[in-house]
Amino acid sequence: MRHDISGDFSIAVLLPCFNEEGTIADVVHRFRQALPAASIYVYDNNSSDLTALRARAAGAIVVRERRQGKGHVVRRMFADIDADIYIMADGDGTYAPEDAPQLINTLITEQADMAVGTRRGVTADAGRAGHAFGNRLFNALYKRLFGKDFTDIFSGYRAFTRRFVKSFPAVSGGFEIETEMSVHASQLTIPVSEIALDYGRRMEGSASKLSTYRDGARILWMFAMLMKETQPLRFFGIIAAVLLVISGFFMAPVLVDYVETGLVPRMPTWMLAVTLFLLSMLMGVTGLILDSVSRGRAEQKRIFYLSLAALQGSRAIEAPVSYRSPPRNRPNNNAA
């Protein structure tokens, strides 16, 4: 079912791509049909095939990003492009362009700053069976660490307002960029929405760029770094607790000997225990200090986020409507 959104909004479709020559033209055409007046941007991330040529032939604005990794591409897109509403998807055709109006509709009617298309049937493809456990594990870990705002932190199909895009720091370089977006929204309590959408299979000849173990390790590392940045008291408190337990393990028998004999026969063990105890105290104090710093940074990010104009509009209807396209200004360098 086709949905049309009312309102005078500029819409930009963002498609980060790496070696997607077999699908990108079809994806661009379908987004053009779903959002006739939107500007479609394809950022080619050093593809070795004809991705850029086919995207340009299909009518997309094509730019090359030389830094390898989806995070670098998203950071460049968010910096380069000005619009009222942004739609981010993949160039492999697994996300249906026909669902984009539903994402925009959700963004407007719920007055959110990010709408996430959660992937319905993401593990139905046998080729993704190896990722099913990781998806469940990381989503459960996210809820434990950062909150219950999201049920699918890895979805790459999202709609954003300009206020979200221009306040998002985008420090990660790879596939963990979606996790960083989710943490940014959770930390600043930014209004977000989710809508369940079908997740398609890759066409024959299109291979996934996701490495189960390498990217899984990078995402886990990103979890740790984001926890350190946003919840330093909790992060360093866990380290302090572990060191304290280990210190107590080594310290207890030495103290027992001292009470019984008045001597410290195992001086190296005692010194190790005291060192671990002092390190534990140091980690605890570090967490306390950085917690104050983190709260100040969060307040500054929140103030900057609120300084940007909110999306004006609160309803959607099913009727033909014209869009105001964003400026189609190409960067002067690095164009593919």
Please give a structural write-up.
Residues 13-165 form the Glycosyltransferase 2-like domain. Keywords: Membrane, Transmembrane, Transmembrane helix. The chain crosses the membrane at residues 235-256, 268-290. Pfam families: Glycos_transf_2 (PF00535). The chain has helices at 24-34, 51-57, 70-80, 100-109, 129-146, 162-167, 177-187, 212-230, 232-261, 267-307; strands at residues 11-17, 39-44, 61-64, 85-88, 114-120, 158-161, 192-198. Helix content is 49%, strand content 12%. With 336 residues, it is an alpha/beta fold. Helix 1 links the parallel strand 1 and strand 2.
Just name the CATH architecture of the largest domain: Alpha-Beta Complex
How much is the average pLDDT? Answer: 84
Q: What is the CATH homologous superfamily assignment of the largest domain? A: Spore Coat Polysaccharide Biosynthesis Protein SpsA, Chain A
Question: Which stretches of 5+ consecutive residues score pLDDT under 50?
Answer: 314-336
The largest beta-sheet arranges its strands as 3-2-1-4-6-5-7
- The secondary-structure class comes to alpha/beta
**Spatial shape:** elongated
Helix content: 40-55%
CATH class membership of the largest domain: Alpha Beta
Q: Can you count the helices?
A: 10
Keywords: Membrane, Transmembrane, Transmembrane helix
Protein name: Glycosyltransferase
InterPro entries: Glyco_trans_2-like, Glycosyltransferase_2, Nucleotide-diphossugar_trans
